[in-house]
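User: I'm putting together notes for a lab meeting next week and I want to include a structural view of one of the chains we've been expressing. I don't have a solved structure, so I'd like a prediction I can at least talk through. The sequence is below, exactly as it appears in our construct file.
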Amino acid sequence: MITPPIDPEIIERAKKIRLLILDVDGVLSDGKLYFSNSGEEIKAFNSLDGHGIKMLQKSGVDVAIITGRTSHIVQKRAQDLGIRFLIQGREDKLDALQELLTNDALKLGFEQIAHMGDDYPDLPIIRQVGLGLAPANAHRVIQHYSHWKSEYKGGEGAVREACDMIMQAQDSFNSALEFYL
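Assistant: Thanks for the context. Below is the predicted structure for the 181-residue chain, given as structure tokens.
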């Protein structure tokens, strides 16, 4: 096995996951807000995270984004990665999740959902779902309530590590890797 061993309790939780929900600022990006002189927002995304998302989707796990901010950049990134479920501009993320679960394509229980977040607005979802995830630089309260913490910071491979971990638990990691060997 190439990746570090996973706690058996986390493996059991991750085996059930059918949907990974991601925050943007501090998870898919480094959490810094960049603005040009003209006021245009700029974000950097990690290509490792993007490829991990694509691999996880191919393994049968859906991916969604729920974010408190609204950005055309995030919409473009979601489209580029084939993420079908995107909810922006929602501070009440648990309410957004409830809305998302009314989608006929997502007939899931909370135990089938994982969420990676880094700050207080993510806490209600992290406490509700089957697998709460945090990047290494998440606020300490988020780390406390999460089941699993990445060794990587948000925007620097944390999402990829989470995707790999879920695929490992579901025994789809090795077959996904074989494509490249």
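A couple of points you could mention at the meeting. The first strand starts at residue 19 and ends at 22. The first helix runs from residue 8 to 15.

User: Perfect, that's what I needed.
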